[in-house]
Amino acid sequence: MRLQGWIIIRDNLVKQKVSSIKLLATFSQMAKLANVTEAISFLEEQLKSIKEKILEVEEDMEQLIAVSTSLYTNYLLLRSIKGIGIINAIVLLYVTDNFQRFDNPRKFACYCGVAPFEHTSGISIWGKTQTSSLANKEVKVYLTWAAITAIS
């Protein structure tokens, strides 16, 4: 549960970071028309503070995982996979309850929304294959970004 709290806090901080970056870009465009240097410097300080807080939260999450040997072992195994970063590993550990929640990889794939389903009746196919709309979309996003990172 403590990991979930840290994940929520980090997600909120990342949203604030993106918002600050967009606001800073807007004010940079406004700088051509008016003197907004004070606002730009304030936003830059705010962005720096948010980045520092994100790093602090990530360190706290890693310390929380390091307390448990089984969590830490699985965390290191996840981190050894190409494309899996700190946050991906922590989210996977949380969602799978340290790989105790799902007894079958297919169930986990269905839960994440990466397993396609066919629309069939007997031998006829009604439509193209699609993933479940009931899936945990946040986990799917993390896995998608991990795949994109591994490909690049």
Automatic annotation (TrEMBL):
GO annotation terms (biological process): DNA transposition
UniProt keywords, alphabetically: Coiled coil
Keyword Mitochondrion: no
Keyword Ribosomal protein annotated: no
Coiled-coil regions listed: 33-67
Domain called Transposase IS116/IS110/IS902 C-terminal: residue spans: 77-151
Gene Ontology terms, MF aspect: DNA binding; transposase activity
InterPro entries: Transpos_IS110, Transposase_20
The organism's place on the tree of life at top rank: Bacteria
Name under which the protein is recorded: Transposase IS116/IS110/IS902 C-terminal domain-containing protein
Organism: Phocaeicola dorei CL03T12C01
